[in-house]
From TrEMBL:
Name recorded for this polypeptide: Threonine synthase
Enzyme class: lyase
Reaction equation(s) it catalyzes: O-phospho-L-homoserine + H2O = L-threonine + phosphate
Gene3D superfamilies the record matches: 3.40.50.1100
Family: Belongs to the threonine synthase family.
Entry EC no(s): 4.2.3.1
Provenance organism: Mucilaginibacter defluvii
């Protein structure tokens, strides 16, 4: 058994060799409204269901409890569906990576860790650099050279050691792993430690709370490593154990870039794992993950939810970023814009049915991607 008082990475038992999931003794009989009344408007409002034991170890920049927005100009195109954005772009460092990294850094502080390393497609590196600066922890970030300049600059400004790698995130991961093992640094690669997932699961708690405990019918999620998708799915299970929601679940849709669409292929083949797929550059750098470490768990959530998976190309994302800025007043990340394209396709095909309530998770701010939007 793994213990939360120790430093944990992955499950190393021969029959497991995959992500470790935090488990809690969840109480029953709590009144959700009373329990949450007067809580802070951040992800820490759910701290009893999160891994940090001592509140003095929480490293917070105000992450979470992001707004749920209805559609403005796009509502005409949504036809018979009520569509919502959960807008994560206002998080510290401009993306929802603040949730996962904020959680992992807080727990690392609790465990006395002095140096953290991560490979990143962009946003996780900036978040790690910022939260480590605040925690007084050293950060090393391994990022593909092709990432837009702003993602590199923010890491340097927050004082992290930035290594630019001539390759993709898988290459970054190999180098980061070698250097971490040589130097005894702690790695927070996606789903290779248990707590980034715990931060991202707070999106699931917020979705339930903000939808007044009546979950939407369909959730679209831009899938890179899949932390948020698996985290939201875990949150719904915990909420059911708490008795705060029932058995009903949304259908989960993984949206990928055509460049890295291994999950889409695996899902439509009915496979339990995915193949490595990397066709190179995409403007949605957060989606350039050739083979998610937790592909099994992503696919499991998709199958369990009767979900779907769909890939979008750069031209479609680019056009959607501009269209959404024009009609919604939101300059969102290409990863988020991909969801609107995916929704339109799946409603045109009839998979999203008239009358269903649909949630799109805009995971990041478009301001960091301007050099690649034309
Ligand atoms: C990292 C990232 C994603 C992918 O998130 P995962 O949880 O790793 O699948 C999506 N959008 C943005 C903006 C990101 O930074």
């Amino acid at each position: 058994m793994h213990n939360a008082a120790n430093v944990n990475t992955v499950c190393e038992n021969a029959d497991c060799r995959s992500t470790l999931f935090a488990e809690y003794d969840l109480p029953t009989g709590l009144n959700r409204e009373q329990f949450l009344a007067g809580r802070p408007a951040s992800m820490w409002r759910y701290h009893e269901f999160l891994p940090v034991a001592d509140p003095s170890n929480v490293v917070s920049l105000g992450e979470g409890f992001t707004p749920l927005l209805t559609l403005a100009g796009l509502s005409i195109e949504a036809l018979n569906n009520q569509v919502f954005w959960k807008d994560e772009s206002g998080n510290p460092t401009g993306s929802f990576k603040a949730r996962g990294i904020g959680m992992a850094v807080s727990k690392a502080k609790e465990l006395g860790i002095a140096h953290i390393v991560t490979p990143t497609a962009g946003n996780a590196g900036g978040a790690l650099a910022a939260y480590c600066a605040r925690a007084g922890i050293r950060a090393s970030v391994y990022m593909p050279q092709l990432t837009p300049k702003v993602f590199k600059d923010e890491c340097r400004l927050y004082g992290a050691d930035l290594v630019e790698v001539d390759g993709n995130i898988a290459d970054c991961g190999k180098l980061a792993n070698d250097h971490a093992l040589q130097n005894g640094w702690f790695q927070v690669s996606t789903l290779k430690e248990p707590y980034r997932l715990e931060g991202k699961k707070t999106m699931g708690y917020e979705i339930a709370e903000q939808f007044n405990w009546q979950l939407p019918d369909v959730i679209f999620y831009p899938t890179g490593g899949g932390t948020g998708l698996i985290g939201i799915w875990k949150a719904f299970k915990e909420l059911e154990q708490l008795g705060w929601i029932g058995k009903e679940r949304p259908r989960m849709v993984a949206v990928q870039s055509i460049s890295c669409d291994g999950i889409v292929t695996a899902f439509h083949n009915g496979d339990l794992t995915s193949e490595f797929k990397d066709a190179g550059f995409t403007i949605a750098n957060g989606l350039r993950v050739p083979k998610p470490y937790a592909d099994k768990q992503i696919l499991k959530a998709l199958y369990e939810s009767n979900g779907n998976a769909i890939a979008i190309d750069d031209a479609e994302m680019n056009a959607a970023v501009k269209h959404i800025a024009n009609t919604e007043g939101m300059l969102i990340a290409p990863e988020g814009a991909a969801l609107w394209v995916a929704f339109k396709k799946l409603s045109a095909s009839g998979w999203v049915k008239p009358g269903e309530r649909v949630l799109l998770l805009n995971t990041g701010s478009g301001y960091k991607y301007l050099e690649n939007i034309v």
